[in-house]
Amino acid sequence: MKLIPLALLFFCLVAVNGCSDDESSTQPEFGDDLGEASTQEVLDSCAVSEEGTYRWMADSVTFQYCEAGLWKTDTVKAHTPGFDPCQFNFGAAWQGTHEEYFYYNGLDYVSVWLGDNNRYSVFERRMVEMSLQTHATPMIYAYVIAEFGKDMGMDDCDVARARGKQSLCVYGADLIREYFVDSILYRYRSYADGLASQVRYKIDSTKKYEPIWMIEPDFYQYSEMASEQSVANHGEEQQNGGIPDSMMGVYFKQIVDTIKAYLPDAKIAIDISPWVSDKDSMGLEKWFSNFDMSLVDYVSTSGGRTLANSEKIRSANKLTWKKLYDTLKKPILADVGYSTGGKATKHDTTWDDISNLEVRAKDGVVGVMQMDAALDYPLRASYIRSRLQVDYPWCKE
């Protein structure tokens, strides 16, 4: 069996059929039986620096992985990319420094942070085009309010405190009261219309087009409830008071209605802020009672730093994965690989560990997005996918 020369490795990953002579080959997955690894053959020793890495063989159906100092082999079969709530899904953030096909081919979704322009821009267009090429689901971090606030000289709460800038935890509520219809909803209309127009003639009209919109990371921070919590924790409150919690639900519905006017089959994720219930065991229930949860398909984390190997979502907060699912009964979308201010922190390998993922899946986690994914992430995902066993309750209904 012949190895792919390093110079050809990326070419083989880019090509739809890799370097295979078999025209039926697609993005691979491992093993014929879920959870069963195929017979492995020890080929050669590998260096300590190569431990845990993967590489394709020349047929693009067989791969090698370095484990315990040895290169071992396994084979793969076809996997259909695209977000599926009955499987564990693997996604990566759209990166201007990584716009190559191989970087996303075989992943289930591609994400982008959206909100810092007045209208749908070429950056988002390139991401959606890649999602069409790779058959991945677009996932939109709709960070419109905060990005509009940054245009007005504000910053994220934790960043503002560190730098002495105007904080969204102080001026964000007034921003919404003054600019919600004319500026914030205007951007949502522009983005949703732009995406819908881009894909209108490129997708099968008989099938639903279901991008996932993750609505407003840190939406909670603008509310009356959050303002009271901020006074207790940081000695700061929203100028003129936080927005009444019930009105936050009204604003949320108007955002969803705006998106669905252009993308009627879009899926909606509501942001969870893990600090909501830190001081009050009923805080989570109280906060989400303000929203029409029939509009919501998923709940989503934001801010990175979510924990694969802990029952807690974030180390600094009390909220657990299980508590979140038991309260809302919605599949959970996790994200990792970045920290304060969106700073990348590299690929988080704890979310590549099969035993971690199986525990998190029992807690309702249905996918993870790596902000700064490793170059071989599609292959890692294939390896994990073939061995990972999940049993989601919503798929039994």
Question: In terms of topology, how is this protein built?
Answer:
Layout: H1 6-14, E1 28-30, E2 42-45, E3 54-56, E4 62-67, E5 70-78, E6 89-93, E7 109-114, H2 122-134, E8 137-142, H3 144-151, E9 154-155, H4 157-163, E10 166-167, H5 168-199, E11 212-215, H6 224-234, H7 245-262, E12 267-271, H8 283-288, E13 298-300, H9 321-328, E14 332-336, H10 354-362, E15 365-370, H11 377-387
Parallel strand pairs: 6-7, 6-15, 7-8, 8-11, 9-10, 11-12, 12-13, 13-14, 14-15
Antiparallel strand pairs: 1-5, 2-5, 3-4, 4-5
Task: Bin the strand percentage.
Answer: 15-25%
Q: Quote the distance from N terminus to C terminus.
A: 46 Å
| Largest sheet descriptor | 8 strands, parallel, barrel
Q: Return the string of H and E elements.
A: HEEEEEEEHEHEHEHEHHEHEHEHEH
User: What does the radius of gyration come to?
Assistant: 22 Å
| Arithmetic mean of pLDDT | 84
SS class: alpha/beta
Strand order of the largest sheet: 6-7-8-11-12-13-14-15
Overall body shape = globular
| Strand elements, count | 15
Give the number of helices: 11
Poorly predicted sequence stretches spanning 5 or more consecutive residues:
1-40
Could you characterize the architecture of this molecule?
- This protein has 397 residues and is α/β, with parallel strands linked by helices.
- The protein is 33% helix and 17% strand.
- The strands form 3 sheets. It has an 8-stranded parallel beta barrel, surrounded by 5 helices. Strands 1, 2, 3, 4 and 5 form a 5-stranded antiparallel β-sheet that branches. It has a two-stranded parallel ribbon with strand order 9-10.
- β9, α4 and β10 form a beta-alpha-beta unit.
- It is globular.
- The N terminus is likely disordered.
